[in-house]
């Protein structure tokens, strides 16, 4: 994969992961009347979500890289 293509795919993946995380946060609500338990649970899960997103990115990157090498 060319560097520009890799950069484009990386940006798209980061945007998708950010969109998913924002959906999780907005499900709880962001106003002063939002439930504290829901927001606390989302804050507690932020690290694991980030870790999972990075792990998934690495796995897919390796898979695409190996598949590309096999074709060449």
Word description of this protein:
Helix content is 86%, strand content 0%. The protein contains 2 helices and no strands. Helix 1 packs antiparallel against helix 2. The chain starts with a helix and ends with a helix. The mean pLDDT is 82.
Strand content: under 5%
Return the structural class: mainly alpha
Largest sheet: none
H and E order: HH
* Strand elements, count: 0
Overall pLDDT level = 82
Radius of gyration (CA) equals 17 Å
> Can you tell me the residue ranges where pLDDT is under 50 for at least 5 consecutive residues?
none
Please state the overall shape, judged from the principal axes of the Cα atoms.
elongated
Helical residue percent?
over 70%
Count of DSSP H/I helices = 2
Instruction: Determine the N-to-C terminus distance.
Output: 11 Å
Which descriptors apply to this entry?
72 residues; mainly alpha; 86% helix
At a glance:
By secondary structure, this protein is an all-alpha fold. The protein has helices spanning 3-28, 36-71. It has two helices and no strands.
Layout of strands and helices, then pairs:
Layout: H1 3-28, H2 36-71
Helix pairs in contact: 1-2
């Amino acid at each position: 994969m060319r560097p520009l293509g890799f950069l484009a795919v990386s940006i798209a993946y980061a945007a998708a992961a950010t969109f998913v995380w924002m959906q999780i946060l907005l499900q709880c609500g962001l106003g002063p009347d939002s439930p504290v338990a829901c927001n606390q649970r989302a804050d507690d899960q932020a690290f694991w979500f980030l870790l999972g997103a990075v792990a998934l990115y690495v796995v897919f990157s390796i898979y695409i890289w190996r598949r590309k090498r096999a074709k060449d």
